[in-house]
Amino acid sequence: MFDDLDFEGYTCPVPIRPDDTVVLGHGSGGSLSHDLLRRLFLPELGKAAPRALDDSAVVVIGGERYALTTDSHVVSPLFFPGGDIGRLAICGTVNDLAMIGAKPIALTCGFVIEEGLPFEILQRVAASMKEAADEAGIYIAAGDTKVVQKGGADKLFINTSGIGKIADGVDISGANAKEGDVIILSGTIGDHGIAVLSAREDLGFETTLESDVAPLNRLVEAMLSVGEVHVLRDPTRGGLATTLVEISEQSNVTIEIEEERLPVKPAVKAACEMLGFDPLFIANEGKLAAFVKESDADKILNAMKKTKYGKDAAVIGRVIGSGKSQVRLKTAIGGTRLVDMLPGEMLPRIC
What parts of the chain have a pLDDT lower than 50? Predict the structure, then answer.
């Protein structure tokens, strides 16, 4: 099934040097992460990952299309306002399947546990995973456990993989954005990143804000039932800005968003102003950005607003041209600035 694919773009642009090492920014989802993909993983593994830049791969079995994805979770701390590493692990993988229009079926989970972790913590995480899986209507089909010596990990890491079924007629990819598409955001941005930040005691920062971590597959089902969706992406690491830049590059389109239309909670604005952050680059775990057919935008927006996780959905921009990869932000004072990826991440270990 890979014979017709062009792997020219997967050649290594910059040779790997003996003194190159991995830094935290390589896990950020920003330009350093993309550099790692293009310089190392895609040249080596590209033929095994023809949709490597989407949230899930598509495999064909018996004429049916299935989505396949995997994700690892290293959030610190393990518990934060509104969620924990267990709920995050389930929702993150469910959402990766949903972002290419798949209906999630089953997950696997792997635990890397540091010696000395209390059973009580592990039990709380497992219970949270079950609750999230039940909410998403998915089951955990298999798992694995490894224990490393004290100091060999930071308490607990979790890997989850998932499979889902893609219905006939559904074709969603970061490469499918079209000129004229309307861009809809499902709700406020930055909630997760600021909530996790507030739980890091060494920073001395507090807020009542809770993470938005949530399964979005029901929301996606509602959207697909009423209109044509070209692109879906959940703006996790690197935030909404990074997600939009990725889509603009995949589809080779010019995107324009309006600052005044971006839904941001006052607590997130205040925290970002105090800490020098930009909400556009803060991680989310229960939001999606959708590029939809212009004539279907109102129907899709209304359907989103009727769901639990789409009630604050808003139109934030559109695709204004093709043939040039660019993201523009119309500022509140009437100017326009270009949006790009950060090299690394403002908040490491956020998911």
Answer: 1-10, 50
Q: In Å, how far are 51, 129, 153, 304 from 220, measured between CA atoms?
A: 20, 21, 35, 8
Residue 20 structure tokens: 């190159």
Q: What are the beta bridge partners of residue 314? A: 185
CATH 2.60.40.10 fits 182-338, yes or no: no
Q: Is the pTM of this model over 0.85?
A: yes
pLDDT at position 231 is 98
Neighbours of 210 (CB within 10 A): 16
Give pLDDT, residue 13: 59
pLDDT at residue 201 in the model: 65
Backbone angles phi, psi at 36, to 5 degrees: -60, -40
Percent of the chain with pLDDT over 90: 76
**Domain covering 21-166, topology:** 60s Ribosomal Protein L30; Chain: A; (3.30.1330)
DSSP string, 211-280: ------HHHHHHHHTTS-EEEEE---TTHHHHHHHHHHHHHTEEEEEEGGGS---HHHHHHHHHHT--GG
